[in-house]
Amino acid sequence: DGGITQSPKYLFRKEGQNVTLSCEQNLNHDAMYWYRQDPGQGLRLIYYSQIVNDFQKGDIAEGYSVSREKKESFPLTVTSAQKNPTAFYLCASSIGLENEQFFGPGTRLTVL
Amino acid sequence: GDSVTQMEGPVTLSEEAFLTINCTYTATGYPSLFWYVQYPGEGLQLLLKATKADDKGSNKGFEATYRKETTSFHLEKGSVQVSDSAVYFCALRTSGTYKYIFGTGTRLKVLA
Question: Please, are residues A21 and A74 in contact by the beta-carbon 8 Å criterion?
Fold first, then answer.
């Protein structure tokens, strides 16, 4: 089955530690995205990638970093510079930037 | 800028009741409109979409009509079930762009 996987489902980290969230897709999509979801708010775009080895900042990129070394993978690192990292993180992908986005199941990050 | 406004929840209904979740938008150009559903602890799933004025999207008994004159895309279902309990997000994407604008979400709770 084609789809998007995110791991782990739940992640706990101590304040000041960097943490990397995984996102893998086998849909052969060129574009991938990372969103952050906070209670009572819509999704906010962190980073997106149109193609391998290219990525762009979204609306709230500060304190985050990404890489896109393979088409299938788009990991997100939440750095210690992110002031309020506790949130639900959603990865998505699409055939191209102008196509419908499909979402993964999400990772809930809690920083203690 | 572009924006999406949804009715605040939570919405609590009895099983078999009629559902309406209001969504209005502000956008330049001609956006595509979407409803996504998020079940507890999961990512977003596309429920339905409409790409031009007067289009009706439908899926699983849910419907929404793209009304350009009122800039609305209200979600309706004639008879809700307990299994419809979830958070519903209205979203738009302006033609020619990658960016989705999400509403804040409306939580629906259906009681048996």
Answer: no
